[in-house]
Amino acid sequence: MKEFVISEVQAETAVLVGIITKTQDERKTNEYLDELEFLAETAGAVVVKHFTQKLDMAHSVTYVGKGKLEEIKAYIENEAEEEREVGMVIFDDELSPKQLRNIEAELKIKILDRTSLILDIFAMRAQTANAKTQVELAQYKYMLPRLQRLWTHLERQGGGSGSGKGGSVGLRGPGETQLEMDRRIILNRMSLLKERLSEIDKQKSTQRKNRGRMIRVALVGYTNVGKSTLMNLLAKSEVFAENKLFATLDTTVRKVIIENLPFLLSDTVGFIRKLPTDLVDSFKSTLDEVREADLLLHVVDISHPDFEDQIEVVNRTLADIDAAGKPIILVFNKIDAYTYVEKAPDDLTPRTKENLTLEELMNTWMAKMEDNCLFISAREKINVEELRSVVYKHVKELHVQKYPYNDFLYQTYDEED
Ligand SMILES: Nc1nc2c(ncn2[C@@H]2O[C@H](COP(=O)(O)OP(=O)(O)OP(=O)(O)O)[C@@H](O)[C@H]2O)c(=O)[nH]1
Ligand SMILES: [Mg+2]
Fold first, then answer.
1. Is 238's C-beta closer than 6 angstroms to any atom of ligand 1?
2. I need a labelling partner for 102 at 20 to 30 A (CA). Which of 12, 250, 348, 394 fits?
3. R_g (Cα) of the chain, nearest Å
4. What is the pTM of this model?
């Protein structure tokens, strides 16, 4: 019965593991692990240690080498002796079924990877029938090849029952009883979920068709950059925004009117590094909104040390879902929180991106994007008028192109309406 007490009363603790390779240097790995830590916290765990190892590539049998695995094991045992039970080990890359099995056999503790952690957060966040169905399907896809021994030693601990905030980290969503179902039953369930999704798809696409002749603008971007905050600001709506990853899972669409011009603005799920394509596929109907948009507002958190990498990830994900090549405006958000390291006059080492002032950064990006970029703070409401007028200009152009005979422009727009 001890397990129940631990998982209910105390936050579970987690140890993170990442590798440093030829294609992923130490700085990058540490950034990934910081992000993984943020993900773990979002899921409700407390991270107590990071382990890294330099390798040519991930070890096919145990992800890290044997020695490193022993070191992790010794750490866990030592912590247990000090009565600081480690709840789980989380790996920064998706583990193969074989790796997962071997690591689990060696460490005898709950093992998660980046994918299952993200899935767990998705399960916790899913609100609508659509999001819940998508997440459940993605979870089964992840589980199916790993069924044999998935956390069997944790049977009694399973939080299990569907989504919701309860349950322990990594065990939300389909629970232990479902885990015991054989492959056939899971496959049946998966095809049912797929049918349900295609039904939802049809409904959504009919809904989209009935929306009338309005330009559609989609907010896209890395997770936690401020998309929902911006949506709330522009649409005067109340979309859930919070300093946690994946606060938004399903798409929200609002009508926005700037001056005399109505258009549709949608807020959607954020992107993240190493997001498995399966998961992106599962979110197809959510992402249709992005795919069918006329204009994308790509929101970037300029205060994040790794924002350039995040821009890349978003561009790659857009290409993956066939949404590349659309008109795009880069909206650099959180300028209020931007910091840089000022170099002393006698410091002759080369300047790096950490040494750029906001103004220098702005000039670089404006040149690169041919002015299709903006610098704002959605939370502090800085440069919001500029944002409105740039969006207005673009939407109007697109509107006139797309609906040349449409006079559905509001004559005047009164703030009080
Ligand atoms: N400092 C600062 N924080 C901001 C700004 N805009 C948003 N935030 C904060 O950033 C966090 C994330 O904001 P959200 O609007 O939820 O971000 P999101 O992109 O919708 O995130 P997901 O839905 O999780 O992908 C919240 O804590 C916001 O208050 C800003 O201009 N400056
Ligand atoms: Mg959001």
1. no
2. 12
3. 23
4. 0.83
